[in-house]
Each structure stands twice: as structure tokens, then as C-alpha cells.
Design brief:
About 25% of the residues are buried. The chain is built from 15 helices and 6 strands. The chain is globular, with a radius of gyration of 31 Å. By secondary structure, it is α+β, with helices and mostly antiparallel strands. Helices cover about 60% and strands about 5% of the residues. The chain has 2 domains: about 55 residues, no CATH class; about 350 residues, no CATH class. A 6-stranded mixed β-sheet has the order 3-2-1-4-6-5.
């Protein structure tokens, strides 16, 4: 079949050559009878030959565009089908879906025991919760599920870590809620001013109002604020989520880490190793928890999913255009794409981490935690890296998903601290104890009705 198609294309090329080069028609290889036979053969096999080779559908670049369009359309159809199936599976049995996802997340953490606690659950000084005995969930090695519940004492390291994290996170979340409210007010103010400017109502102060920087905006000049409706919907969603109760999941993993999972909303995972090595007090823990909550506020996980989706579609489009010669060339090209995307994803990840560092410490300062503690966190991280590498500093690489600890400490000290220290002083945090700064107010009655 392939040989027959190639033969037909070759004859078509010969015929086109004869048409464009009359001098060759007298050659014994290119007689009139031969060209007539070729032309009849082409028509008989269903190839639509035309003397006008300049038709757009005969152009090679046009055929490649059509091919790319077909591939991208197929990718879109597959994505839409997968999205619908995923939505259906969650809608039919959401509890099982989230339970399985939670189990897989904990298995990936390689932890053997877990404590899950609500961030707003009332606590007493004896570390008992609502008068009941503290419990820890253990992993069943046979079924690989977290179902065994074991009673423990209040001084157990897991429960001490849970209480410590809960005390800090509750204040961070309250500050994040105020931040979301401030963002909503700022976006609505800008939208209203822009709408008045577009209507041309003759107010000479409208242009000044559009370019005016509010008291809230002065503290977040480093954060770009879009006035699109999608941006407003995002912060309205964040405000609603921050009104709900969140869960803290404490694991016995000794690796110093904390993370959030976009597929498991309103949950923050904290390893015990984080409190052992990086965070020695509430102020330092606040910097890390603010960092993780900032990933949620800035939609970093969701954005990374969309980037991966776009990369996969791009690979499919390029593969449809390129002419691979053999299996080796095919694997080489795919490997090249993978390496390129690994470098680009790492660069985006480092940028996201820096943005989360900045906003996270801003939230911690709003919650009246000392902003200088963020520098101490990354100095502790650097000391831990030296300890794990036998005194040898970690070498920077383009494949690193996180910036160097020294760079993060320098960024916090040189860029963030001058502004955050002033914010800490303006909030009069020293005289507020465990309260948090509400300089831009709670939800006003007007905003509350709009939510």
C-alpha cells in the first residue's frame, strides 16, 4: 500500500515537472503517450490533479496546519471526555473519591501515623480535644490503608505538633481571609472607576481614581491586580473557602516539609520533621504555613496543571508536523521535548515559590507574627542542608524546583523585610498579643451582601 502511494506521488511529480518544463516533453522518457498514461493513472486512483499547483490546499504548509488542527481538536475532545468522566465520578461518590485520594497522598508521604485535626476545634490546656482522648491513625500494612486508631497521651510528639500547628494556622487563615476581602474591595474599586471612565461622565477626578493606589494597594504593589471578572470570581471563591473550616494533617515523616494538594481542598499537610528542623517557634512556623496558604490563594497548583495540559497539546502538535525517521529519532525528539519542559517547569516553580514566600510572610505579618522569623526559617533550612550533605553546600541547578535557601533568605531580608517591618509597626502588633492586623477591615455589610 505504501509503495503504491509513493509510486503515485512520484508519477504526479513527474507529470507536474512535464507541465512546467516543456523542453522535457520531447525526451523519449517523457513522450506525450507517457504523460497521458500517467495522468489517467492518477485520476483512476482517486488523486485530484490540477494543472494549477498554486491552489492553497496543495500547499505543504497548509496541509501541516490542517494536520495540527486535527491533532489539537482530538486532544481537546479527549480532555473534555476525561473531564466529564472525572466530574461524574466525583459527583456520584465524593466521599470515596476524596478518601482514596487522601490515602494515595499519605502513601506518597511514606508516613506510618497521621493526626487530622480541624483548625478551629476548641482546645484546652491539657491538650485534650473536647474532653476526649487524643488518637492517632496508623497505617495497616496489609491493606495499605489508614484505618487503625490508637489512643495516645497528650504529650505525644504528633499531638504536640498538631496543637502547635493549629494555634498558628488559625491566625494565618484569619489574616488570609482579610487579605481576600481586601483584594475583592480593591478589584471592585478599580472596576467601578474604569467603568466610570469608559462612560465618560465628565468627572475630572475619574482618571485620578483609576490610577489611585489605596491604602491596601500600597502594601501589595509587588502583586499584580487584574480587574477582569475572572480575577474577581477567583477571590470571591477564596473568601468563601477561607470562611469554611480547614483541616491540618500531621504526619510522622521526618523530612522537613509542608504542602497543599489542589485536589484535596482546605487541607494542609505538615510533616513532624518541619517542626524539628526548620520551625523552632510560632513565628517561624507562621512563615511556612503562610507560604503554603499562599500557594492556594495564588492558584499555583491549578496553573501548573494548565501548563502541563498546554505542553502535552504542544507535543502532540509538533509530533504531527515532524517527519520522524525511525524509532530512535522518535524517542530522541520526545526526550528533547521532555527535557525542555522539565527546565521550563522548574523555572516556573521557582518563580511560584518566591511569590509564595513574599505573600506568605505578608500574611504572617498581618497575623502579628514577627516578619524577621522568615529569614530565620531559611537559615535553619540552610543549616539542615549542610548537616545532610556532610558540611557541603547544595549546588544550584536549573532543574531545582525551589530556590536556594540562601537566595530565599536574602530575598526576604532585602526585598520583603523593609515593607513588612513597617506593616508590623503600623498594625501595633506588639500590643495586640494573639490578635491580627485588621487595618483594611472585616467584610463590610455592602460586600457581605454581594458575597
Amino acid at each position: 500500500m505504501i509503495r503504491s502511494i509513493l509510486a503515485i506521488k512520484t508519477k504526479a511529480y513527474i507529470f507536474q515537472t512535464l507541465e512546467t518544463n516543456p523542453r522535457l516533453q520531447g525526451h523519449h522518457f517523457f513522450t506525450t503517450e507517457t504523460t497521458k498514461t500517467i495522468k489517467e493513472n492518477i485520476f483512476r486512483r482517486g488523486i485530484n490533479y490540477t494543472k494549477d499547483g498554486k491552489r492553497i490546499w496543495n500547499k505543504r504548509w497548509f496541509r501541516k496546519i490542517v494536520r495540527v488542527g486535527r491533532v489539537l481538536g482530538l486532544c481537546a475532545a479527549v480532555w473534555a471526555g476525561g473531564y466529564q468522566l472525572g466530574t461524574l465520578s466525583v459527583a456520584q461518590d465524593p466521599q470515596t473519591f476524596y478518601r482514596n485520594l487522601m490515602r494515595q497522598t499519605l502513601l506518597n508521604c511514606e508516613c506510618n501515623s497521621v493526626v487530622e485535626i480541624n483548625e478551629s476545634e476548641p482546645l484546652v490546656s491539657s491538650l485534650y480535644v473536647n474532653g476526649r482522648t487524643p488518637t492517632i491513625v496508623l497505617k495497616d500494612e496489609q491493606t495499605q490503608t489508614y484505618s487503625k486508631v490508637m489512643a495516645t497521651h497528650p504529650g505525644h510528639p504528633m499531638w504536640v505538633s498538631a496543637i502547635h500547628s493549629q494555634r498558628v494556622f488559625h491566625r494565618i487563615k484569619e489574616a488570609a481571609h482579610d487579605f481576600a476581602v481586601g483584594m475583592i474591595e480593591e478589584i471592585k474599586r478599580k472596576q467601578s472607576a474604569a467603568e466610570r471612565e469608559g462612560n465618560g461622565d465628565g468627572d475630572v477626578n475619574v482618571n485620578e481614581e483609576v490610577n489611585h493606589v489605596s491604602e491596601f494597594g500600597k502594601h501589595i504593589e509587588w502583586l499584580s491586580i487584574d480587574t477582569h471578572e475572572a480575577e474577581l470570581e477567583h477571590w470571591l471563591l477564596m473568601e468563601r473557602q477561607l470562611r469554611d473550616d480547614w483541616k491540618l494533617v500531621i504526619t510522622d515523616n521526618l523530612v522537613p516539609n509542608a504542602f497543599v494538594n489542589a485536589m484535596l481542598p482546605r487541607r494542609v499537610f505538615i510533616n513532624v520533621g518541619l517542626l524539628n528542623h526548620f520551625c523552632k517557634n510560632d513565628d517561624q512556623l507562621a512563615a511556612v504555613l503562610g507560604h503554603e496558604l499562599s500557594h492556594v490563594l495564588l492558584s499555583h497548583s491549578e496553573n501548573q496543571m494548565y501548563v502541563n495540559l498546554a505542553q502535552n497539546a504542544l507535543v502532540a502538535a509538533l509530533v504531527s508536523m515532524l517527519d520522524f525517521t525511525g524509532l530512535f529519532g522518535f524517542l530522541f525528539e520526545l526526550g528533547a521535548f521532555s527535557n525542555i519542559f522539565t527546565y521550563t517547569n522548574a523555572a516556573f516553580s521557582r518563580a511560584d515559590e518566591t511569590a509564595a514566600d513574599h505573600l506568605g510572610e505578608y500574611l504572617a505579618t498581618m497575623a502579628c507574627f514577627k516578619p524577621e522569623a522568615a529569614v530565620d526559617v531559611w537559615e535553619n533550612a540552610e543549616a539542615f542542608e549542610l548537616l545532610m550533605n556532610d558540611g557541603e553546600a547544595r549546588k544550584e541547578s536549573l532543574l531545582d524546583s525551589h530556590p536556594m535557601s540562601t537566595d530565599r533568605a536574602t530575598y526576604m531580608e532585602d526585598i520583603c523585610l523593609p515593607v513588612l517591618v513597617k506593616l508590623y509597626q503600623d498594625c501595633n502588633c506588639k500590643n495586640k498579643g494573639n490578635e491580627h492586623c485588621v487595618g483594611w477591615g472585616r467584610v463590610t455589610q455592602e460586600l457581605e451582601s454581594g458575597l
